[in-house]
Amino acid sequence: MTPIKEILSKSLFKVASLNGISILIKICIGFVTSKFIALFIGPSGMALVGNLRNFLTTIESIGTLGFQNGIVKYVAECQEDNLKLKQTISTIFASVLIICLLLAIGLFVFSNQLNVAIFGLNYHFSFIFKVLAIAIPFYVGTIVLIAVINGFSYFKKVIYINIIGNIVGLLATIVLIWKFKIEGALIGIVLTPSLLFFVSYAFLNSEIKLLKDIKLKFFEFTILKNLSSYSLMALVSSVIGPIVYLAIRNTIIQDMGIEKAGYWEALTRISSYYFMFVSSIVSLYFLPKLAIAKDDLETKSLFLSYYRGILPVFIFALVLIYCTRDFIIELLFTSEFKPMSTLFFWQLVGDTCKAASLILGMQFFAKKLTKAFIFSELFSLVILYGSSFYFLSMYQIEGVVIAHAFTYFIYMITLMVYFRRNLL
H helices of 306-343, where? Predict the structure, then answer.
C-alpha cells in the first residue's frame, strides 16, 4: 500500500473526523472575514489587523506560559489519579491567573506606548489595549480550558467548541466591521476569542466540577517545573517570531506605505489557510509515530512516506494556486489587492521549503530536542530579519517574500544536515 493510501485509509480518517471539519470551517470563515476586511477597510486595514494579530500571538503565549502541549500531556496522564489531577489543574490555573492579572495591568497602563509600537504615531487605537486588558483573562482561559478538555480526550467537544467559536467570531466580526470599520475589525480580533470562555467552561464543568478542584492547597511547584520544559520551546517561537514579523511589517509601512504592507498580510493569510492541511496531517499523523519510532530506520521510513506521499500533493496544489492567483485575489479580496499578484512566486517557493522542513522539525518535539529546537528557531528568525531588510532595500515589497523563500531554504538545508542520519 502506498504511503498516501495508507494515510487515507487509516489515520487521515481520524484527522478528518477530529480536526478536518473544524479546519474547513475555519478556512471558509477566514475567507469571508478577509473579504469583509478587503471591502470595508482595504489594504491599509489589512496591515493594521496583521500587526494586532502578531501582537496577540505573543500575548497569548505569555498569558498561557506556553503550557498548551504540557497541559494536554499531564491531564491525559493523571486523569485516573484524582489528587494528581486536582494538583495539575490548580497549578495551571493559579499560574496562568497571576500572569493574566499582570498582563492586564501592563496593557492598561502602557496602552498609549503599545499603540505607538503596534500601529505607529498616525493611528490612535490605545483603547484597543484597554479592551484587551479586560478580555485577556477570558481569552487565555479559553485556551487553557480547551487544552484541559483535549487532555481528557474529549475530541468531539473540542471540535464543537472550535466550530461554535469560529461561527460566533465570524458573526461578531462582520457586524463590528460593518458598523465601525477598522475599529470594529480590531475590537473583533480582541473580543471574539474571549466569548468562547463560557462555552468552554460549560463543556468542561459538565464532566468535572472545575471550581471545586481549583484550590491553592493543591498548588505544586513540581508540576510547574515539569510544565516549564514545554513552555520554553513554545515561548521562543510564539513570542520572538511575531515580534520579528511586526518589525518587518512596520518597516514596510514606514518605507513603502501601509498598502504594500497590506498586500503582504493578505498573502500571508492565504498561505496560512492552505498550510493548515499539511500541518494538521504532520502533527496528528506523523508526530505520534515519530515519537515512538525505535530507531533511525523507522524514522527514515516515516520521512520518506511524507516526502513521497504528502509533499508532492502539496506542491501540486501550490502550482494550481500560482496559476489561478489572479482569480484567488479577486475572490478573496478586491481589485485593490491586484498588485500582490507579483508576490506569489517567491511566497510559494518559500512555502515549499517550509513544507519540506516541517516533517524534520517535528523531530524536535518527538524527541524533546529542546536546545536544538531553540537554536534552529532563533537561527531562522535572525536570517529572516536580516534578509528581509536586505532584500527590501533591493527589491522593494517583493524583497519580503524573497527573504521568506531564502530563510526557509536555509532552514530546510540546515535540518537536512542535522537529521542526515535519518535521511541517508
Answer: 311-323, 325-332
**Residues 357/408, Cβ–Cβ less than 8 Å:** yes
- Quickly tell me which residue has 503596534 as its cell: 118
d(CA 242, CA 228): 21
- List CB contacts of 420: < 8 A, sequence separation 6 or more: none
Q: How far is CA 114 from each of CA 105, 129, 187, rounded to the nearest angstrom?
A: 13, 8, 15
Q: Distance between CA 49 and CA 128 in Å, rounded?
A: 12
The closest of 270, 355, 283 to 12, measured between CA atoms, is 283
Nearest to 269 by CA among 50, 38, 119, 57: 50
Angle 397-268-175 from CA coordinates, rounded to 5°: 115
pLDDT tens string, the chain, 424 residues long: the values are 554 455 444 544 454 445 566 677 777 777 788 888 888 888 888 888 888 988 988 888 888 887 776 777 677 777 777 788 788 888 888 888 999 999 999 999 999 999 998 988 888 899 999 999 999 998 888 888 887 877 776 666 767 777 787 788 888 888 888 888 888 888 988 888 787 887 777 777 776 666 666 777 778 888 788 777 767 777 777 788 888 999 999 999 989 988 999 999 999 989 988 888 788 778 767 776 777 777 778 888 888 888 988 899 899 999 999 999 999 998 888 888 999 999 999 999 999 999 999 999 888 877 778 788 889 999 999 999 999 999 999 999 999 999 999 999 999 999 999 988 877 7
Select from 228, 184, 200 the least CA-distant residue to 139.
200
Q: Distance between CA 248 and CA 356 in Å, rounded?
A: 25
Long-range contacts of 401-405 (CB under 8 A, 24+ apart): 401/264, 401/267, 401/343, 401/345, 401/346, 401/347, 401/350, 402/346, 404/346, 404/347, 404/350, 405/346, 405/347, 405/349, 405/350, 405/353
Cα–Cα dist 102/108, whole Å: 10
